[in-house]
Amino acid sequence: MPSPGASASADAVERARAAQQRWLLGGAAARSAALASAADAIQAAGPELTALAVREVGKPLTEARAEVARTVAIWRYYAQAPYEPVGAVHEPAVGAGLLLTRRRPHGVAGLITPWNFPFAIPSWKAAPALAAGNAVVLKPAPEATACAMSLAEIVQRALPEGVFTVVPGGATEGNALVSSADVVSFTGSTAVGQAVARGGAARGIPVQAEMGGLNAAVVLPDADIETAAAHIAAAIAGYAGQKCTATSRVIAVGAALNPLREALSEALRALPLGDPADAATVSGPLIDQHARDQVRDSWHGLCALVGGTVPEGPGWFAAPTLVEKVPSEHRLLRTEVFGPVAALLPAEDLAHAVQITNSVPYGLVTSVHTADLNTALGGLDGLDTGMIRINAPSTGVDFHLPFGGAKASSHGPREQGRAALEFYTSSRTYTLTPPRAT
């Protein structure tokens, strides 16, 4: 599909701006009904959307089904949001009258989304924006254009014309959207996210940017090693590691090192690698040849406990890989590879593990595996990550809770849950003073 150019983004924003007031003034009941209708339609189209995600972005069938189900749940969750309170009433400090706070939509929300969750990420941005009374212009990643267009076709049938628009394309269209929308939410690479944040700051508009991760799994000696290994293996290799929440560093504390090395190696060997259309597949292909080559280069010269190979034959596959004895300045410990590879690192104790976890530029999510929650919670206050998952994989999103990280992982307010409704609105304070009696 040819790129439509910067003017397409600007035109879409203007059309959305013209439609936004009608959408807002239609009332909470109309917005709620529209989002619920979108959820029903997405659910009805589930098999077709699942198959499209498998074909276009190589998402394993089981994960694609789960993403579509989550997408339905997201629209249903935010279908209730138009009825939520949008402010509060306060007593004045002195005299008669009232003080009110009220949240109002920004206008047009510009959404720039990646290819790895082609339905869920656009939905967890668009649904709260729409629920709050904004119109939406979506610029998806080029690799997921068909998924975005299919989602839009479904959602647009439930909404008034102009309220939800998709502009396909690349950087040109994305930059134009940042230059014209009233609020911007971005998910993608750190470099592009930082540029989006700078562009929004120059215009004085709210910007939210979810970017990279270099996530750690911390395993204490008292953990159930087999269960921890199963969780971590899935978080390393699921969808070929193409998730910002994937585990890329495994930190074994003290005596956990040797048993974890063995258990995790076996768990990774056992994960099915292959055709994403096969329901048994856990680790499918990388998104393109460049991504596959980057993953292959990332383990070059390192000691691979398992994997470290690129299977012969068609497809951009890389075997799930665990390496150890990685130099502290190696790229695996500094930058996000976005593939099914992780480094096994030893730590003397929990405090040392926290220090290792925090030693990277990113701070999205950390998983911690232990039988002693008191020890874990007491030692986790020092973690500089936005999300902490105890005895669970680093992957996985609770869409009704805030999502986001620290440092180079995130910029601006959190996504999802009620935090999203706050991001897509601005707070106003009203002072109501009664007229002087005559």
Helix/strand-derived category reads alpha/beta
- DSSP strand content: 15-25%
Distance between the ends: 69 Å
Q: Percent range for helical residues? A: 25-40%
Number of helices: 14
- Unreliable spans are none
Question: Which value, in Å, is the CA radius of gyration?
Answer: 23 Å
Average pLDDT number: 96
Largest beta-sheet characterization: 7 strands, mixed
- The gross shape turns out to be globular
How many β-strand runs? Answer: 18
Strand order, sheet with most strands: 10-11-12-9-8-14-15
List the helices and strands and how they pair.
Layout: H1 6-25, H2 28-44, H3 46-57, H4 61-79, E1 87-90, E2 98-105, E3 108-113, H5 120-131, E4 135-140, H6 145-156, E5 164-166, H7 171-178, E6 183-187, H8 190-203, E7 207-210, E8 215-219, H9 225-237, E9 247-253, H10 257-270, H11 289-298, E10 303-306, E11 321-324, E12 341-347, H12 350-357, E13 362-363, E14 365-369, H13 373-379, E15 387-390, E16 406-407, E17 410-411, H14 417-423, E18 425-432
Parallel strand pairs: 3-4, 3-6, 4-5, 6-7, 8-9, 8-14, 9-12, 11-12, 14-15
Antiparallel strand pairs: 1-2, 2-18, 7-17, 10-11, 13-16
Helix pairs in contact: 1-7, 2-4, 2-6, 3-4, 3-6, 4-5, 9-10
